[in-house]
Design goal:
26 helices, 7-stranded mixed sheet, alpha/beta
């Protein structure tokens, strides 16, 4: 920007002030320094005159050639002045030689020269003179000037500073005054504009300088601000209008969202109601089907009839599982699925899942293997039902998609491993792996999507809803875990579920010293079984030796040495899939050097699964469970007693059911409130089969009236009935029961419902019911509940059971088709082949028994009786097996007359079996 009239005066004033200050300072310094210079010149002149006088005095002394006199002259000339020194030098070929001198000046070294001079060097005055008579001699007279007085300099500086400040203040005041005069119109104009917040006016300024230009710029700025204000007001109006429109739209959207929310809630409620109704409507007829089939299976059936009941029962439970999947998925989506938090045993859960799935695996010829890490504790907090559901779905899929071919045996493994643990949590890894068909990466990407399976044809070929894996993933997420899958087509699939499980106060570990002092020799050719069994035995403290061939076993038998007195030997033989022949097992058991050895034989032959001898235990590997293996080792080693088999007796003859009057007298009469006629009939039949007399009411009102007439000890009630629901019935009974002083006839109320939704059981218990059963009713479940809340008296049970035993002995079939079907399946052709094969193989044994009896050979008689017992048990000829067992046990001790009677019983029962088989087939 060019300099204007406003800037020029300022520049001139500043320049004049600076020049004046410099001029004053120069004058002061000149005034101060001029006297000092004159004094120095006079001192130098006097010093030169003194030197000239001294030269004249030195000439005679030098002629006398004496330096002492010269020295005295120099000292006299110095006159004891400390700031003065004299030197006499002679020039030689080597340079100047000092002849005589006075005391030196501090910090000064003279430099002689053959010249006459008088000079001032800073604060030193130096006079040099050549002696006329002696041109090679130089006299130096040196004097140090006194330090200059600093006061004049300081005075001049202070004066200069004061003058400069005064001039600066004056200049500043003049400039400020001039600037204020010029800027005042600008300040007034901008102040008024800001005060009124109006920028439409202008600032008056007629000055043709920078201030005038600033005023013009401010006026331009005001005009732009005015335009901005107008634009801002217009924008604010637009924004307000838009705000109103947005608020209106938000209100419309909110109303629409609220309406949609209400609609969705109604739809969700309708869906829940529909699912509950669907569950009730499906489970109600299923209750009749399954309950009737349970009763039918306890009667005498032919093979084809028993096969048909199996088909009906399994189809019914398949339908219920599909229904449960749909209900679970619906509850998960609605966020209403709640997990229980109970101390659980992962070992028991995995073994239970294995026992459930083993029949399916057996039908598909799949080898199902279980492994529970022995380091895993029991008592971790979890939901046992949902954990079982996850494992059941994963393992069921693995069995479904795995096949056994002539070249490869299908294998499915269920395992639980300990990852890490601390004082509060234990990380558990559940794995289900198979060597089946596998999946591609594309299939893995959506395998957890609901209603999806690996490929479209699977739904038709293998069945299923496609919800299992989706439910597993969501249940795992609810447990704060994760589920992953690894798969390769043609090689198999592995699902891994990682769960953090809280430790309860009931945590317990597998004892590490349970097998201390046991020497165990393990024979197996199965790598999985070797690893699993070895882990179990070593963790429990056993000393382990492994043999992988029969020859190695025989060599160990020959080389076996006697063990210490406190140590026992147990040999565990894996005889699954004919790894070791029966004759080799017999050879080892009867080996002379192995008489002190106990044996645990792992077999997949059903007929040997419950066989026990003093030195041999047969353990069924369907599947091989850790608890069963360790129990078998403890039992055969004498560290644990043999468990007595539990049997369930169902009272199926309704002629033994007491009358209503008798049941009232005994306080055992049951009231059933059920509106469905079919369910009435089925439940009455089931209760009668269990020995209970029943009164029936078609709805809640009738049931309440009956209860008022006689306070039944137990009421079974459906929840959804016309006129009065089961809930209202329970409330009425409890309300009226509180008014009675005597509670000796207190009524137990058990809910029977087809509604399987979450919260139903809690609702029933909260209104005073004692138990809750979901339809369809299984006879075992009903018996368990009835025995808990209304147990039959011991006298009645014993009397009825005694009648049943007599009747069963009279009417029991020689061959149990339940046992035969569990071993061979439901194929009647296989039944025919196996039963005829039994006759062919057992007939020679009967002849051998007769021969050994005549020869009085007890050992052979015992061996043959044992073989006959095992064969009879395999086809379900239980009575024949019992007679053979009695003969086997009596062969060593009883007299021959008793043995002949037992042998006669065996022959007669064998004849009955043969006759029965020939009639049926």
């Amino acid at each position: 920007m060019a300099k204007s009239n406003f800037t020029k005066p300022v520049y001139l004033r500043v320049a004049g002030t600076l020049v004046l200050c410099l001029l004053i300072q120069a004058l002061l310094f000149n005034w101060i320094s001029t006297p000092a210079q004159q004094q120095h010149s006079q001192a130098l002149h006097r010093l030169a005159a003194d030197t000239q006088v001294l030269m004249q005095a030195l000439a005679p002394a030098l002629d006398d050639a004496g330096t002492q006199q010269v020295q005295q002259l120099l000292l006299q000339a110095r006159n004891n002045e400390p700031e003065r020194a004299l030197y006499l030098y002679r020039q030689t070929a080597q340079g100047f030689e000092l002849l005589v001198n006075t005391e030196n000046l501090p910090n000064f070294v003279p430099t002689p020269a053959l010249t006459n001079q008088a000079v001032q060097q800073q604060n030193i005055l130096l006079v040099s003179r050549l002696l006329p008579e002696h041109p090679d001699l130089v006299l130096l007279n040196i004097q140090r000037l006194p330090e200059p007085d600093p006061l004049p300099v300081m005075f001049s500086f202070v004066v200069s500073l004061v003058v400069g400040l005064l001039f600066s203040l004056a200049l500043s005041y003049a400039v400020a005054k001039n600037f204020r005069r010029r800027i005042k119109p600008l300040l007034q104009g901008t102040g008024e504009a800001l005060e009124r917040n109006q920028f439409s006016g202008s600032i008056d300024s007629h000055q043709q300088d920078d201030v005038g230009e600033l005023a013009n710029n401010l006026n331009g700025l005001f005009r732009r601000l005015q335009q901005s204000q107008q634009a801002l007001q217009s924008s604010e109006q637009n924004i307000e209008q838009l705000k109103q429109e947005v608020e209106h739209r938000i209100k419309e959207r909110t109303d629409a969202l609220e309406t949609a929310k209400l609609t969705a809630e109604k739809a969700n409620e309708a869906k829940s109601t529909f699912l509950a109704t669907m569950s009730h409507e499906i489970r109600t007829p299923m209750n009749g089907i399954i309950g009737t089939v349970d009763l039918l299976r306890k009667t005498e059936l032919s093979t084809s009839q028993f096969r048909m009941t199996d088909t009906i029962r399994e189809s019914s439970f398949s339908l219920l599982r599909i229904l449960d999947d749909i209900l679970d998925f619906s509850k998960i989506e609605a966020g209403k699925l709640e997990l229980e938090k109970l101390p659980v045993s992962l070992a028991e859960i995995i073994e239970a899942v294995g026992r459930i799935l083993v029949s399916v695996a057996y039908q598909r010829q799949i080898d199902l293997k279980l492994y529970i890490d022995p380091r895993l504790p029991d008592g971790l907090i979890g939901d046992p039902v949902r954990l079982r559901q996850i494992l059941y779905n994963l393992a069921g899929n693995a069995i479904k998609f795995t096949e056994t071919t002539p070249d490869t045996t299908g294998v499915v493994r269920i395992s639980a491993e300990l990852l890490e643990e601390n004082l509060e949590y234990t990380q558990v890894l559940l794995k289900v792996s198979d060597n089946g068909r596998g999946m591609t990466q594309r299939q893995i990407n959506y395998v957890f999507h609901p209603f999806n399976q690996a490929e479209g044809s699977i739904t038709r070929k293998f069945g299923g809803t496609g919800l299992g894996l989706s439910i597993c993933q969501r249940l795992t997420a609810l447990m704060y875990g994760d589920i992953n899958v690894e798969s390769e087509p043609g090689k198999g699939t592995e699902f891994a579920v990682r769960l953090p499980m809280r430790r309860s106060e009931e945590v317990s570990y597998l004892p590490k010293d349970a097998l201390n002092g046991l020497f165990i020799c393990l024979f197996t050719q199965d790598s999985d079984n070797q690893q699993f069994i070895s882990d179990y035995l070593l963790y429990s403290g056993a000393e382990l030796d492994i043999a992988n061939s029969v020859d190695a076993l025989l060599n160990r038998a020959e080389q076996l040495k006697a063990l210490p007195p406190k140590q026992q030997a147990v040999w565990v033989l894996d005889a699954t899939y004919e790894q070791i022949a029966a004759k080799d097992i017999s050879t080892l058991i009867t080996h002379p050097k192995l008489q002190a050895v106990k044996f645990v034989v792992i077999t997949n032959q059903v007929e040997l699964s419950d066989t026990h001898f003093d030195n041999v235990v047969y353990l069924h590997s369907a599947p091989l469970c850790r608890s069963q293996l360790l129990d078998a080792v403890l039992v055969i080693s004498g560290r644990k007693g043999r468990a007595q088999p539990q049997t369930h007796h169902y009272l199926l003859n309704q002629q033994n059911v007491p009358s209503a009057a008798e049941a009232k007298q005994q306080r055992k009469l049951v009231l059933l409130a059920e509106d469905n006629m079919m369910n009435q009939r089925v439940i009455v039949e089931q209760l009668n089969a269990l020995g209970y007399a029943v009164d029936v009411a078609d709805d809640g009102i009738i049931a309440l009236e009956k209860w008022r007439q006689y306070h039944y000890p137990l009421v079974l009630t459906d929840l959804h009935m016309p006129n009065m629901s089961g809930y209202d019935l329970a409330k009425a009974i409890r309300k009226e029961g509180l008014q009675r002083a005597d509670d000796s006839d207190f009524t137990r109320i058990i809910a029977i419902t087809a509604n399987a939704l979450k919260g139903e059981e809690q609702k029933c218990l909260s209104i005073g019911m004692d138990a809750y059963i979901t339809k369809p009713l299984e006879l075992v479940t009903l018996q368990s509940v009835m025995q808990r809340w209304l147990p039959l008296t011991e006298q009645t049970t014993t009397q009825t059971t005694g009648k049943k035993v007599v009747r069963d002995e009279q009417k029991k079939a020689p061959v149990c088709f339940t046992t035969l079907a569990s071993f061979l399946g439901d194929n009647p052709i296989k039944h025919d082949e196996y039963l005829n094969y039994f006759i062919t193989q057992a007939s020679p044994l009967l002849e051998q028994l007769e021969q050994q009896s005549m020869a009085a050979n007890r050992s052979e008689l015992r061996t043959i009786a044992h073989q006959l017992k095992a064969m009879a048990k395999s086809i379900g000829a239980n009575l024949l097996a019992d007679y053979a067992l009695q003969l086997e046990k009596a062969a060593e001790t009883s007299d021959w007359s008793a043995l002949k009677q037992l042998l006669n019983n065996v022959e007669q029962e064998f004849a009955n079996v043969v006759r029965f088989i020939k009639q049926r087939y």
